[in-house]
Amino acid sequence: MLFRSVAATAKTLPRTLNTISRRTYVEAVENALKLQFSLPHETLYSGSKVNQVNLPAQSGKMGILANHVPTIEQLSPGVVEILEEGSNTAKKYFISGGFATVQPNSVLSITAAEAFPLESFSQDNIRKLLTEAKGKLSDSDAVVAAEAAITVEVLEQLEAATK
Amino acid sequence: MLARSAITQSARCATSQIRGYATLKEVELRLKSIKNIEKITKTMKIVASTRLSKAQKAKAAAKMIDQADATFYDVAKTAEVAEAKESPKHLSIAITSDKGLCGSIHSQLAKAVKRNLEANPTTDIVAIGDKIKMQLLRSHPENIKLAFNGIGKDAPTFYESSLITAKILEELKAQDYSKITIFFNDPVSSLSFEPSTKPIYNPETIQTSPGYNVFEIDPEGKLPTDLFEYSLTSQILSAMAQGYAAEISARRNAMDNASKNAGDMINRYSILYNRTRQAVITNELVDIITGASSLD
């Protein structure tokens, strides 16, 4: 097994020399899920190997493992759980929405507008903001009401997640 | 004739003498104002330097988002469909900022947009930032369909770009354009930048991509539309972040040069000032000595 993979690497070596460095990295390790988790202002993961990622997709919650079928999913507000290699506890981030793409080479790219670790939220604050937003739901201004509806959706998810 | 020329000659002498005394004051004032200019440019340089690291970070994060988008379109081979379309309706989104004092960065982008306009004269333009708007208004006022200002005060946020995207979608129906191009300044290094472009694909193009079936996508959902809107927002954001980084580093260089020039001028003027002062003192000494010797 080891010999075979060495042989395979040797075979791909002349080819990979010509391609860009990102490609070589991808070709060298085949059987792990690589996660790119990026926000507009920060990059949380840039291609590190993970065991599993659970996503709050709009079509329902889904878990992504290595060699998943290529897909693209819109994410709803919810918790992204990341099971890193060599660690038993999942890292949890709450996102406000975004997109997840599984590339054919076992690379999962998640792009979200905002993401914060779940433990950084305060339950009291969530409750306070939730009552505030609910008050605005029946506002006469349609824009304010629509914004409040989105806020309530996000906050309710967040409240459920932090419980 | 001779008399007249003698009179003008003497008049000239008189003015030059007056000027000789006035220059000392003038040179002093000039020197002071240049010193103030140097202080301002130096401060602006320091401000730009401190903002640079933040801008670089925003640029790096934005590039990652770009990459995620680009790999999807790469696999789906979306570019092939977009290229194959005949007589496409073009939309150019040109991104600069409101602020100047950063060298030729805005005019170079304007040149790139104009070059594209020569090839496709019917292109509609969205101008983001006052600088590009002013430059394009002069040459192609009828092409500008939308303009935004208040850009570039701080590193761009997702909220800003969503507001811009919402306006573009609402006012221009961006999804109907078969070719959308974003023009922005790409910071190649901390010293140089380059006007570059990137394409945005509309929902129809996304759906008809030859590689679209590689991905397992729910056919019921309106994913192409959602993806188009989301990637338009994030691409505008990343272009704005890169443009911002390019602008900040260009401003730092411009202000660095301006401070150096001001330093040179200060040197030249302080030598001139000292010489003039010395000349005045010598003149006065000559006067005193002449006066004293006439008494003997």
TrEMBL record, chain A:
Q: Which residues form the ATP synthase F1 complex delta/epsilon subunit N-terminal domain?
A: 33-107
Q: Which domain of life is it from?
A: Eukaryota
Q: Which UniProt keywords apply?
A: ATP synthesis, CF(1), Hydrogen ion transport, Ion transport, Membrane, Mitochondrion, Mitochondrion inner membrane, Transit peptide, Transport
Tagged with keyword Ion transport: yes
Q: Which family is it part of?
A: Belongs to the ATPase epsilon chain family.
> What is the documented function of this protein?
Mitochondrial membrane ATP synthase (F(1)F(0) ATP synthase or Complex V) produces ATP from ADP in the presence of a proton gradient across the membrane which is generated by electron transport complexes of the respiratory chain. F-type ATPases consist of two structural domains, F(1) - containing the extramembraneous catalytic core, and F(0) - containing the membrane proton channel, linked together by a central stalk and a peripheral stalk. During catalysis, ATP turnover in the catalytic domain of F(1) is coupled via a rotary mechanism of the central stalk subunits to proton translocation.
Subunit record text = F-type ATPases have 2 components, CF(1) - the catalytic core - and CF(0) - the membrane proton channel. CF(1) has five subunits: alpha(3), beta(3), gamma(1), delta(1), epsilon(1). CF(0) has three main subunits: a, b and c.
The protein here is known as ATP synthase subunit delta, mitochondrial
**Name of the gene:** ATP16
Automatic annotation (TrEMBL), chain B:
InterPro entries, per database record: ATP_synth_F1_ATPase_gsu, ATP_synth_F1_gsu, ATP_synth_F1_gsu_CS
Q: Which UniProt keywords apply?
A: ATP synthesis, CF(1), Hydrogen ion transport, Ion transport, Membrane, Mitochondrion, Mitochondrion inner membrane, Transport
Membrane topology classification: Peripheral membrane protein
What Gene3D superfamilies is this protein classified in? 3.40.1380.10, ATP synthase, gamma subunit, helix hairpin domain
Q: Which GO terms describe its molecular function?
A: proton-transporting ATP synthase activity, rotational mechanism
Location comes to: Mitochondrion inner membrane
Top-rank lineage group of the source organism? Eukaryota
The UniProt entry, under Pfam families, shows: ATP-synt (PF00231)
Subunit text: F-type ATPases have 2 components, CF(1) - the catalytic core - and CF(0) - the membrane proton channel. CF(1) and CF(0) have multiple subunits.
What task does this protein carry out? Mitochondrial membrane ATP synthase (F(1)F(0) ATP synthase or Complex V) produces ATP from ADP in the presence of a proton gradient across the membrane which is generated by electron transport complexes of the respiratory chain. F-type ATPases consist of two structural domains, F(1) - containing the extramembraneous catalytic core, and F(0) - containing the membrane proton channel, linked together by a central stalk and a peripheral stalk. During catalysis, ATP synthesis in the catalytic domain of F(1) is coupled via a rotary mechanism of the central stalk subunits to proton translocation.
* NCBIfam families listed in its UniProt record: ATPsyn_F1gamma (TIGR01146)
Name of the featured protein: ATP synthase subunit gamma
| Organism of this sequence | Maudiozyma exigua (Yeast)
